[in-house]
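Archive entry: two folds, one per protein. Generate the first.
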Amino acid sequence: MPAASKGRDERRRAALTALAPGTALREGLERILRGNTGALIVLGFDQVVRDLCSGGFELTVPFSATRLRELAKMDGAIVLDLAANNIVRAAVHLMPDPALPTDESGTRHRTAERVARQTGYPVVAVSKSMRTIGLYIDGTRHVLEDSVAILSHANQALGTLERYRLRLDEVSGALSALEIEDLATVRDVTAVAQRLEMVGRIAGEIEGYMVELGTGGRLLALQLDELVAGTKAERELLALDYVPAAADGRQVAMDAVLTDLGGLSPDDLLDVAKIAATLGFGQPDALDHPVSPRGYRLLAKVPRLPRLAVERLAEHFEGLQKLLAASVEDLQQVDGIGGPHARSIREGLSRLAESSILERYV
């Protein structure tokens, strides 16, 4: 993800965390909704915000939901500090630059969007007529939903993630068996890369729901952790296995490829040829070309084998087939691999090879 996009996402999540159910700020906003009044609230205060304020009165009082509700009864905006610990100003008239673009039509919402653009701070607009809470940040509007609606969306996403993870396990197991038999093709590799990326994106969507749910998202977090366990490491290992790069530049090449995969649009992610090109496999007609891994993925499945040992073994043998054919004595030639360790690695690789092939044909 590009640095600018990542920064925007982090700011949005921080703002949603501050507004999540269970927080004092969210309670204050819901009191405003129940009281059938609107509100305009700026979540941050500095000289830029000060210059936009006209009229009203200055306050330096601790924030509370009841105070926010009472101040919202008056005309004008309310200004909080960035941490929402104090109410700084109330009943102020905000005058942002009218030249700033906005797609909103209502006065309160037009002001909210322009203030958010001009100051860089999140701005909340509570609509009296629509009975909605809108968050404006970085030129976008996010409508806050109640916990029941968010949980419904999250459960649908979890169901999708379960299906994606099941399919990922299928194609990953098939790739492992084909690798052992030296029958893997570019198409097989791209199928795993595609599913890994899909799982990661659905997981990111669910993480957004967790942020919006606040303390109510703990059970969701446990389910998510179980479903995505190991996928981040497998994504890296797949790239290390197949990205065309010398040993000394492999880590940098892996990072670049994973960044490019993360930047693919949803439509591009459905195109296996584009995924193959992103992985460095060249032209679209190369999908059925045979490929051989370096052995990172299979070695990572050997119990109690450290990551450093995985890297040394993969770099020493430069290919999974050579690694599978290596004897205990050959394994001992690798720096840091002793006799007992070499025997356990040899036995572990043999068991993995047998189980992978059996799973494919049974």
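Generate the second and append.
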Amino acid sequence: MKHSQNDMHRLIFQNQPARVQGKIILMLLVILLGGCTPDGIATTVANNSTQLPGFPTPEALFTPLPARPPYSPGQLVDYIAQSGDTLPALAARFNTNISEIRKANPIIPQTATSMPPGFPMKIPIYYLPLWGTPYQIIPDSVFVDGPASLDFNMEAFVQSQPGWFKNYREQLGDGPHSGTEIIRLVANNFSVSPRLMLALLEYYAQALSNPTPPTTPYVLGFQDQFHQGVYLQLVYLANILNNGYYGWRRGSLLEFEHPDGRIERPDPWQNAATVAIQYIFAQQYSSPVFDQMIGPGGLAQTYSKLFGDPWTNVKPPIPGSLLQPALILPFEPGKGWTLTGGPHTGWGKGEPYAAIDFAPNGVSGCGISDDWVTAMADGVIARSDFGEVLLDLDGDGKEQTGWVIFYLHLGSNDKVAQGVHVKAGDRLGHPSCQGGETTGTHVHIARKYDGEWMLADSPIPFDMEGWILHDGPEPYLGTMTRYSQIVIASDQSEGKSYIRSDR
């Protein structure tokens, strides 16, 4: 018996479970109502269209995402360690504790920092409802602006595409910038991959395929009056992506809420990049639109069409048992400075809590300081921009590889130039208020490894001459400890926050 296409679709629909039928009906209503669900919750779109490019697809409509079954309390489940995994974060994701994980895996040494990618583990799981899909969108290696970005000629790629983005120009504070210059600026600041940003621009706004530019200033769908234009939309995007990525890394982001009020917990087996993308879409969309976006027919499909399969030859950015090289305090010996900021964001707002602040004594407000910020290790200056210096410790001059120390708020006067080789303790520049946002003269310092921000308080400790960083109850609070000594972060230049180098 032959069926028409409509008959086939009807038969497929009738053979679906009630849950899936409900999703299909809701999806069709979303499309017919112009991007608004029946309960009145608007879906945010990047241009004046009612649907995302190439969306919805029949495959996405009729193929529910995979899910996990319930587990008995404490049941041991198989887990293969992924890049950047640490025991505290795994314990939080699986709703268990470190001691139980160690008991099930006695081979793990007490000194373990990051888990070796590919390492098989048994983890006791305590099931929680509302866990999301185990489908993974992209690997972590193509989320960060790391080694995988080095072979990418972004300008040539964009110019080879027919979309509006190749001719895009935007006026920023320091003059006009091309679209690719804007992406590089955001990538430098947030350390998010240029490929990922291009894929998201294409997914939301057909930036690479459609010659006609969107008529809205909210090209990525973030309806915020203070974030209009491609640059600020990308800043908004990168900031939320990092909140998702590093929140999952740290084990602090364990659930998020959709616009319809639905709570979702990322699957405990998920990788950080996928959770970051889920987190950004969850700010804007509810099911079934959200399910389409995070499934095989969503962003994953767009990324693969542009750049090929991201899961081919994956090189994990964070190896097992990663250790920080020896670092000294970032000021000259015998000088007393103040810890004015405990662990807080490396760049932007929120995560990653990768940075700390030091201020010289005797300077108030944005006064000029004669004190010097110094190199914390041997290396080469990979980049020297307005207010910024990046010290590359592996000596290849690339900030996307190996250990890198990020310095912010260095004044233009006497600042070290790009390409200069320095030794630990060499002078790099003076603390100031230049670059970023600040109300007082200081230096902001953070670590990266292969382009990934390294959390200040983590199993890979931020260690400077034996001083170890610890989080406080909120950003900018916290301590540095060395044996029985404790320095407490304060922006008041108090005695409790005073620290000096003894080298």
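Annotation attached to the second fold: DSSP finds twelve helices and 21 strands in the chain. Confidence is low (pLDDT under 50) at residues 1-60.
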